[in-house]
Design a protein that fits this description.
This protein has helices at residues 9-13, 81-84, 168-199, 227-260; strands at 6-8, 16-18, 24-34, 39-46, 53-58, 62-65, 69-72, 77-80, 94-96, 102-112, 118-124, 135-139, 143-147, 150-153, 163-165. It is α+β, with helices and mostly antiparallel strands. 28% of the residues lie in helices and 31% in strands. The protein is built from 4 helices and 15 strands. Among the domains are: 6-84, SH3 type barrels (Roll), CATH 2.30.30.240; 94-168, Roll (SH3 type barrels).
Length: 264
């Protein structure tokens, strides 16, 4: 059975240990590590709830990882919980920033299966037993100093570290921020389109009266009329009027004379 190159400690402790004889030695309960060099040496399992003894396994005894079981070679060492509590560890240690303020605690780490070298730690701001809490990655080059129960790092806040897993609250805030940014972009695009429509109307504006070409009614037809023609036509009109008036008077006189002479 092929072993993975890297593995998570919490996943390792979640499996039951099965020896070569097929005996179930229980689930893992804690890690056995050497903090000065950041190396995992092995882990501890609890065979039974009725026994006070614990089984300690070296990392080089691991031969395979199944869905729910760890397959080991050889026999584990027996110990008690009081002795195991005195083993040095960096798990559950407080993480202090560059100003000496606590920003979280170590809750997990990733290690190489073959060598046990710890590659990175995982930091939690709140209680790690609460489901859905956030995890930040802490690489070894950020560690300034380490003591039992304490790690000093060269960052000010957890936000300076890469986020490995977001909590429900962090995920909600991130989604809300993304939705707000998308809504703002949509509003800006709509405003730009509306301004473009207002600047360039789809219809043609009517021409101004001052720039409109002169129509036939704007020109006086008598403006360039010759004066001689105007006087001639006026005299002709007067003569025609006198002739019409004279002919009417003659007819009236002739008719009146015919009426006076009954023999005509």
């Amino acid at each position: 059975m092929t072993l993975p190159k890297q593995y998570l400690l919490s996943d390792l402790l979640r499996h039951n240990v099965i020896c070569a004889d097929g005996i179930d030695h229980g689930i893992g309960i804690m890690a056995w590590m050497h903090p000065p060099v950041h190396r995992l040496l092995g882990w501890v399992s609890k065979p039974s709830n009725l026994k006070l003894s614990r089984d300690v396994w070296r990392l080089d005894q691991l031969r395979g990882i199944g869905d729910h079981h760890l397959y080991v070679k050889g026999i584990g060492s027996s110990s008690d919980q009081a002795t195991l509590d005195r083993l040095p560890t960096l798990l559950n240690s407080d993480v202090l920033n560059i100003n000496g303020q606590k920003i979280g605690s170590v809750v997990d780490f990733i290690f190489e299966v073959t060598s046990g070298k710890i590659l990175q730690y995982f930091i939690s701001r709140s209680n790690p037993k609460i489901p859905g809490t956030s995890r930040w990655r802490l690489y070894l080059d950020h560690i300034l100093d380490q003591q039992p129960g304490m790690i000093s790092v060269d960052v000010k806040t957890l936000n300076d570290l890469p986020l490995a897993r977001a909590s429900l609250r962090q995920d909600f805030l991130r989604r809300s921020r993304t939705f707000r940014d998308q809504l703002q972009d949509f509003s800006d695009q709509a405003s730009n389109r509306l301004e473009g429509w207002l600047d360039e109307p789809p219809w043609e504006e009517p021409m101004n009266e001052n720039t409109r070409s002169p129509q036939k009614f704007d020109i006086d037809p008598l403006e360039n009329w010759p004066d001689e023609l105007e006087n001639k036509e006026m005299n002709d009109n007067l003569d025609s009027s006198e002739n019409i008036r004279y002919s009417q008077n003659s007819k009236s006189t002739k008719t009146a004379g015919n009426e006076e002479d009954p023999w005509i």
